[in-house]
Task: structure prediction
Amino acid sequence: MEILLYTALFSPLVGSLFAALFGASPKTLITGIVTSALLGVSLIASTILLVHVITTGQFVQVELMTWMATGDLYIPFGFIVDQISVTMMMVVTLVSTVVHVYAIGYMDHDKGFNRFFSWLSAFVFSMMILVMSDNFAGLFIGWEGVGLCSWGLIGFWYHKESATWAANEAFIMNRIADLGMLIGIFLVYWNTGTLQYHEAFAVMPDLDNATLTWMGIFLFIGAMGKSAQFPLHTWLADAMEGPTPVSALIHAATMVTAGVYLVVRSNELYTLIPNVGLFIASLGAFVAIFAASMALVNRDIKRVIAYSTLSQLGYMFAAAGLGAYWVALFHLMAHAFFKALLFLGGGNVMHAMNSELDPFKMGGLGKTMKGTMILMTLASVALAGIFPLAGFFSKDLILEVAFVDHHFIIYGVLLLTAGLTAFYSFRIIALIFHGEDRHTSLGFHPHEAYKFMLIAMTPLLILAIIAGSFKSTYFEYVTMLLPGTEYHVHSAATYWIMTIGTQLFVILSIAFAYKKYMCKDIKVPDGTSAMENSFKYKLLINQYYIPHFYNEYLVKSYRALSTIFWKQVDQKIIDASVDGIANIFYKTGKNTRTMQSGNLSTMLKWMVAGTVVLLSLAVVFGLAVRHSDEIKTILSGLGV
Amino acid sequence: MLDNILSILIFFPALAAIFGFAVHKDSMRAYGVSVSFIEFTLALMLWFSFDSNVSGMQFMEQLPLVPAFGINYILGVDGISLFIVILAAFFTMIGIASLSDTKDVKNMIITLLFLQMTMVGVFVALDAIVFYVFWELSLVPMLYLIGAWGGPLRIYASVKFFLYTFTGSLVMLVGMLFMAYFYFQATGVWSFAILDWYRLILPETFQLWLFAAFFFGFAIKVPMFPFHTWLPYAHGQAPTIGSVILAAILLKMGTYAFIRFSLPMFPDAAVFFMFPIAIIAIIMIVYTAMVAYAQEDVKQVVAYSSVSHMGVIILGTFALNVEGITGSIFLMIAHGVVSGALFLLVGVIYDRRHTKMMSEFGGLASVMPRFATIFGIMMMASVGLPLTINFVGEFLSLLGFYQQSHILTLLAGIAIIVGAIYMLAAYKKMFFGEVTNEKNRNLPDVNKRELIALVPLVIITVWLGIYPKPLLGPINNSVESVVQLMHDKAITEEAKARIPNLIEGIEITKTTDTEAQ
Amino acid sequence: MEIGLNHYLVLSTILFSIGLVGVMRRKNLLMLFFATEILLNSVNIAFAAISHYYGDLTGQMFAFFVIAIAASEVAVGLGLLVVWHKRHNAIDLDLMSTMKG
Result:
């Protein structure tokens, strides 16, 4: 089994290094094929491991070598394949294999073809480290590694100012959260004496509540950054500057779910501190509706899908925060499939439309792009949570969790969000594929993507459809490790009312979206309509003015403060005072050199004066020493 | 030969430098490379014959100089100094090998070899006077390097560098003399041997004053805020090789001296000054990182980033536990490798364009992809990405200090954010975007000679990031003995509590003794 | 009235002051040498007197040393003076200002 574990882990690295060898040379198809094949190998190895874990119920744990050891600290490169990590491994390898194959077609004409595959495989490797590590330090390696690859891939088209800006924004924002994560790791180490998951979690029940709360909070801050939770969410929408396969793999299916994975992995910690859990759930619910609201009006298909991702991450955190870790993980898995599918479909559309992203400029694409239309529609259906697709099983479960745990506000918010989700998903479907042809007049001549790209997407489609049927198997094996609370509404009647009600609500939202955006007179908005000038619309399209706020107040003031520190403080105060002290000596020298007039007579006079001063000093000190007792008494009499 | 290897390591380059005057200037480069290569081989031999299970000094040498005053020529290395010595030999070799075409190469190589003598001398000296002599001597070759081969402001920069650090070390010398005098009063014997001084337990007030005197000398050298202003000038004006050696080795003298002198000699004072120094370190980290962000000259960005990283080293040192001090020593080496490499990289672009202004560049990633890749790796190492050399040091330093203070570590941790900000911003300005300046359109990528210097550094950066154990092991052993010594010597209650006791058994018997009383 | 130590010391002080004023005021190099001689000899008087007072010969020996050194100093000084005079045809102190700082 160990060899399988290493195969699963290191084949993406091998692929990445192989592609990196050709990094600077023009496109060589072989890099794409080799990296994809190696990911396939990783996928197969993960599948065998999955079967092993399911059938035997045991996990595989290996220690590759020591990483850091000093004092009492001992951090190995240790890897574990248990029920949680094997689920993540399956998601990561499966989606990334699909995305790799897809990207061979998508990046067909790109100059940086080889570089792209090198980065992409490096990302998969980092992600595998993240999910397979058996300690917090290893997790952090993967954590930063995916951040690095995300930086490289968002800024892949580095000649574009917006892309590099978004890359830096993503990296720096993640770093803010990573600080929280790092502090969380320090807390774990100094309180439990180890960073190994199971040893640390074993000690945690004995610690006092305040420590555990801080631990939970700081680790969650780390999760907030990677999973783009409010207020660190702005980078995710900007990250859409990267190539679309990147968005599908990193910013939908895998990296952004790392935060959820962290919370699920630390379930033993979060079970001990339900207050923090409730906070996580509330923040998750808030982000769910907050992001969904921004998705309602956005005119960039990738950004809409990004907000949808954000919103679904909110769902996952809501579930995890309420203690339903297995539900969160299940939704993570289902979401990865249909969201990656949705993004890749979006990529097809983008390709067809020469990178045009405004759905209002499309319309009627369904005629030329039938395959993509079917894929994206099904993915949206799954996202909306319609029976019997994957979203139904996972998302409804989260609603049930909130309901059963009597968190009705969270339940209400999430329910409302489900409606919004259905609306915005089908808003873009309707705008892109249905209705009148608006693109021909703008000079676009769309074409369907390569066949093999569509074929590559089908595994995701199948999983998006059938993932729900794995629920019972999944529940069985994953609850060997996670708290296996079953969430059942007490009375059957309530359950049916809830389920059917939700379904109806969602279907109505879809119908409304179709009705609103299929009509004939859709025009490309030009900022004149009443709706576009309403306050609500402006608030939403400007993302609640949060990026504006960050840019105007945080970024600019940081830059201004830096300049002040440099020009005013460093040069005018600190350095000037150093030079000032040096100048005192220079000046003294300059002024006293006139004494050296060279005239022997004056010099003799100075000599005599000096002798007199020294002699009198000698006399004074001599007297002072002789009469020191008297001087002391006089001084003490004066009260000194 | 191994018995005198340290003396050979010190004086071989100096001797070679003297003979260097006789070498013809066309063959000087080859001569310099071979001398520094032999020196590096010797340093490696030192490492291989070094017993990493021994925590104390090894390869000790002793010769009387002024026996009446206990001044002896004592050398020795332990896990703390070993790797800095190797680093010094390594960087001199790399530096000479990658030397670009400069005027008067012959004299520059001679200067570098003399500089190497002083650097190795500082790190292996175990007698305060010998240490002081090498410490001061190291200023002279550096003064020449900046003053003779520097930029337009070179005279100002070199004089400032010399006088500033010299002032600090004079205060340190006074401290040393007092220390020796106290030792004489306590034992009746004069001694300047550091190992003898370790055994002396001073009253707390004495410790505070002596600590302050030593601190002044070390802090300027490090350089710590607010004594750092000489550094940007020195780096800004120095030739590439000067900056590389300055950042990689010379700055480490200060932090090394803290661990060699201040901590084991004045444990109570170290605990007393721990929080003020930590606050200075945090100011260093955040403030200079912000200043670095405002820079327009890429070399200044790297220069200020050095100060920022030195802050983390100081913080780790004053964590006063094994994790922190080991981390800070590792970070010294890591920072040496990474900042040395960054200065070399800046030198590469300076050789091509004769400017270091970031506004002159842009879009270099497409013109010089190899250069961009190496720069990117080094930048990420500087930012402290895991699996690069810097991360190990930063992680351990911060982890160590976390035991002493939560809040201060949180503040110091801002390093990982602000570090990313200035580095990524600089990288973006230089490498990303379209090529706007016509002069940049046809720049040649890194050539073979530059690769000879850069590739080993990249390999070390990644190798030690993944597998730091060969270094951490010996460092850890020596640090443990230092920490134990500090704990045993500490007088005040607070110091006893702050400095961990590594041999638990002794503490238990002591407490039972007091209970019995 | 017997002439005691104090008288000698007073004489020595007076001579020393005269010498000191001479050193400060005189502009002629030759006169400066005279003033220096007066200074040295005033000290010699004090040495001899104190030596006699304590009955210790060290002081008188010291006076001889001073005389010997003064003699050699004057010899060197006059030699220089002669050279200077040959070059510049003057021995005015105000003209000797080449050591200006």
